[in-house]
Structure formats: structure tokens, C-alpha cells
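Sequence only, no structure available. Ideas?
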Amino acid sequence: MPFSESLKDEVKRKSHFRCCICRNYFVEVHHIIPQAENGPDDIDNAAPLCPTCHDSFGNNPDKRRTIRQMRDQWYELCAKSETNPDVLQFSTKLDGLYTEFQTLRLDQEKQNATLNDMRSLFSAFYETQAQQMQQVGTIGDLIVASGIVTSGSVPPQGYGTTLGVTCKACGQYVYGYSAKYCSNCGTKLP
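Reply:
I predicted one. C-alpha cells follow.
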């Protein structure tokens, strides 16, 4: 019996829609212990692999332990890092289009329409990313734009205090040398 759709969705979300080995998109949910060997259809036996890694590692019994370890490490890393909502929305849509594309392999017209949808999604996403990058004036702005850190009440450990300024009105720490207004209260910054 194959994995349920809800289990596949859970695995993909836990992995931020990326392969636990190479970090590429377009993941498939792989049975670590194959169904032919009575591998269960549960979350512990599931691993997010891209088609290439699925082909390269999936059928190798010597790699099962490695796949499980890499999956667990990737889940841990994903759990620690919050995904930018734009990236999560993009990943969810892209995964849906990829799944749709796989089911349409024989219907060339629908396949072309789905490819055009994917092309449009990539174009819009990268255009937005480019616009955000044009607004980056400093390394602090780049860190905020990349989603590594966001505004907060204190600078994160390891980033020092030179990446931004604390708003005198509300105490909010605003990252970026070129920030002109507090992201919390809107007060003009020094």
C-alpha cells in the first residue's frame, strides 16, 4: 500500500519541500524499507528524496541507515529554521504543479499548460526576489532580506550590534544600516 497523501504532505512540509540528501526541490516520498520487503507506510519509513537521489540511493539496502540519518538531520535543521512565508507558499505551489505534471505525462497539451504555469510561478517568484534584493543596501539589509534574522527586541547572538539600531521609542531592534523607520512603531530612526 502506498503512503497516504496526508503523510506525503507532512513529510514534504517537514523537509521544506526539499530532498534530505541534496536539498533540491521536486521531492518524492521514498520508502526506506521497500514495500516489497514489508516496509511500513508510516512516517518513520518515509524520506523526502528528489528523483535523482531516489534513483541513486533508494534501491540500495546499504544506504538505508544513511538515508534515515540524513533525513533526521535535515528535519532537525528545517525545524530550527523558520521558512520565509513567500518561500513556503512558492514551494507548496511548485510541489502541486510538479505532482500535477507527473500525472499528466501522456497528455501533451495539459503538460505544456502545466509547464507554462511553472514557468510563470518561477518568473514571479524570482522577480519578487530581485525586487527585494534591489532594496538591499547593506549586509544587515541582506541578512534581513534573506530571512536569516528579522527585526526583534535584541540582536541575535553572533550578529553583534552593528547590523542595525534600537528604536528609542519602543525598544525594537531594527536590522539594517539603512533602515529609516522602525518596523514596529514607525518612528523615524537616527
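The chain has three domains: 5-80, 85-134, 136-190.
Hope that gets you unstuck.
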